[in-house]
TrEMBL record:
Residues 27-46 bind DNA. Keywords: DNA-binding, Transcription, Transcription regulation. Residues 4-64 form the HTH tetR-type domain. It comes from the Bacteria. This is Transcriptional regulator, TetR family.
Length: 184
């Protein structure tokens, strides 16, 4: 049990450090200090800083996906589902500061880095789920015909770069108006 707790402690410290300073500005020494462990213990669990970052990123995206897609809403209408999705996304970004900051700070790097293949694939899978939700709405003729699913996905995924909760709520309302034919 102690091993699992130590690994989680390291991952939490790394998430905090990477979200506050970014990958390039954080050292393994700093993460060890934040976690209250020896540097060698980090290398016991993670062969490199890159591997540690990739696991932090993947776990962060999994937490986001669980929040957004883990709730079964088969009984609700598509309009209710898309509205709930956008609300949960904005609420997640405003309540999970470390993950929100990590996404904002490192998203471009994850997409561009060849050595973070698993992290990139996890993020692309997340984007694919959003795009599928938009495509479903278009098929049901609830999403405006002019809406390009990829562009809408990119727009939704980029709201993590907005700094204030009030602005995020305004963007949530704007997205609903843009996406849905009937804004009810």
């Amino acid at each position: 049990m102690a091993r699992k707790n130590t690994k989680i402690l390291i991952l939490e410290a790394a998430k905090k450090a990477f979200s506050e300073k970014g990958y390039d500005a954080v050292s393994i020494d700093e993460i060890a200090q934040l976690a209250g462990v020896q540097k060698s213990l980090i290398y016991y669990y993670f062969p490199s800083k890159e591997a540690l970052f990739e696991e932090v990123w993947i776990k962060s995206i999994e937490e986001l996906e669980n929040e957004l897609f883990g709730v079964e809403e088969s009984d609700s209408s598509y309009v209710a589902r898309i509205k709930n999705f956008l609300k949960r996304y904005i609420d997640f970004l405003t309540s999970k500061k470390a993950i929100s900051d990590l996404l904002r700070r490192e998203k471009t790097k994850v997409i561009d880095q060849e050595n973070w293949k698993n992290a990139r694939e996890k993020y692309e899978s997340f984007l694919g789920k959003i795009q599928s939700l938009i495509v479903e709405g278009k098929k049901k003729k609830i999403i405006n015909e002019e809406v390009d699913p990829k562009a809408a996905t990119d727009m939704i995924a980029s709201v993590d770069s907005l700094p204030r909760k009030g602005l995020l709520k305004s963007v949530e309302n704007m997205l609903i108006k843009i996406l849905l034919k009937d804004n009810t």
